[in-house]
TrEMBL record:
Topology within the bilayer: Multi-pass membrane protein
Keyword field: Cell membrane, Membrane, Transmembrane, Transmembrane helix
Coiled-coil features, chain-numbered ranges: none
Designated name of the protein: ABC transporter permease
Domain annotation MacB-like periplasmic core: ranges: 25-247
Domain of life: Bacteria
The organism's taxonomic lineage, starting at the top: Bacteria, Pseudomonadati, Bacteroidota, Cytophagia, Cytophagales
A Gene Ontology term for the protein's cellular component: plasma membrane protein complex
Any GO BP: lipoprotein localization to outer membrane
Domain ABC3 transporter permease C-terminal: 279-401
UniProt family annotation: Belongs to the ABC-4 integral membrane protein family. LolC/E subfamily.
Length: 401
């Protein structure tokens, strides 16, 4: 029998009357439990937000994007495109010409981000689930079409049903001085709106158009692109594919994954997650201070018992372990309760979504959550460390008595 564990359990579970010290121990356990539960839930919400953003980006952006290291465009020769297509794991490759432009529709005018894409873009079928009205169509029977974001439709009052009113896109000519009053200072292209899509606000100014139209508008020569978007086959290892694509692209081009393109947002989410976790850790620390006080008072209350133990031959190490185990029992029971409650709340939120976002314009109805075993393990380790810190001094005091 482990005597220190037995005595610690007797002190914790077998009290004949509920004294102030026992109530303080219970309060300490509840404080640790609530703090642990809150930490698990909040960390899971941040994980859910990060995963939600990944799903949003996956709706519009490619798995890999080839960009120039200098400037905003480069020459995508047939040899380069074929070399990239031969990389293991590549499913589709889309040539893209993208830049800001001015759009007119009827009496409305707005600044847009025109994205010219080739026919392979529609084969990716990324926007199929995001279409609000119309259809995915860029070119048919010699007619050029545009797919506009909901923000552009709202700003210009566009109706895909109205095929008689064109969407006019204007772009400044590079070889002429810019003058908004000079109609010859702009390249112009007219498009028929075929559909409207909505993902979220960061994509609300996009207009998709045929690649040749965008090249003509921007004054690009043949094979000029701003990027090459690559869709990988399902199950492809992204890191291995990225390295292979970088070797094929050469030193003048840079291959970036979807996460690389949005690294600032992910970094912001992780910093916020760390700061919130730090704040909740201090709350758990404050709750664990009650363990310090309850153990200190227990040492005073059990002074006679400690003297008897020494008289029976107990060592300082044994007495110290008794009160360390007592503090561990309080913290572990609180932590386990908090972890279980936190996991249950997250699983219930993930399945039923009973806590809503509270905004009508949100793209989701409820807060996203995602449980991560590393967060749960980190929370458990954190509680153990805090318990050791708060229990050591009372246990040491008991050992010196």
């Amino acid at each position: 029998m482990n005597l220190p564990s037995f005595i610690a359990r007797r002190y914790f579970f077998s009290r004949k009357k509920r004294s102030f010290i026992s109530w303080l121990s219970t309060l300490s356990m509840l404080g640790v439990g609530v703090g642990t539960m809150a930490l698990v839930v909040v960390l899971s919400v941040f994980n859910g937000m990060e995963e939600l953003n990944r799903e949003i980006f996956k709706t519009f952006e490619a798995d890999m994007t080839v960009l120039p290291k200098e400037g905003k465009r480069f020459k995508a020769s047939a040899a380069l495109i074929n070399k990239l297509r031969e990389v293991d794991g590549v499913q589709l490759l889309t040539s893209v010409a993208q830049d800001n432009a001015l759009a007119r529709y009827a009496n409305g005018t707005t600044v847009i981000k025109l994205k010219g894409v080739d026919d392979s873009y529609l084969k990716r079928k990324q926007l199929d689930s995001s279409m609000l009205e119309g259809r995915m169509l860029l070119n048919r029977d010699g007619v050029n079409y545009a797919i506009v974001a909901e923000g552009v439709r709202h700003d210009l009052g566009i109706s895909p049903i109205d095929i008689l009113t064109p969407l006019e896109v204007l772009y400044p000519q590079g070889d002429k001085s810019f003058n908004v009053l000079n109609p010859d200072a702009f390249n112009r292209e007219s498009l028929t709106v075929s559909g409207v899509f909505f993902i979220e606000s960061r994509y609300d100014n996009f207009v998709l158009a045929p690649l040749d139209v965008a090249r003509t508008l921007f004054g690009y020569i043949s094979d000029d692109v701003t990027s090459l978007e690559i869709q990988l086959k399902p199950g492809t290892n992204e890191e291995i594919a990225k390295q292979a694509l970088q070797e094929a692209a050469g030193n003048e081009l840079n291959v970036q994954s979807r996460d690389d393109l949005n690294t600032d947002l992910y970094r912001t989410i992780r910093i916020e997650k760390f700061l919130v976790a730090l704040a909740l850790s201090f709350i758990i620390l404050v709750a664990s201070v009650n363990i310090f006080f309850s153990l200190s008072m227990l040492v005073i209350e059990k002074k006679a018992d400690i003297q008897i133990l020494y008289a029976l031959g107990a060592t300082r190490g044994m007495v110290r372990r008794i009160f360390l185990i007592e503090g561990a029992l309080i913290a572990v029971l609180g932590a386990v309760t908090g972890l279980i409650l936190g996991i249950v709340i997250c699983l219930a939120q993930e399945k039923y979504g009973f806590i809503g976002m509270g905004t009508v314009s949100s793209i989701i109805d409820a807060y996203p959550v995602k449980l991560d075993t590393s967060d749960i393990a980190m929370t458990g380790i954190l509680v153990i460390l805090i318990t050791v810190l708060t229990s050591w001094l009372p246990a040491q005091r008991a050992a010196r008595m």
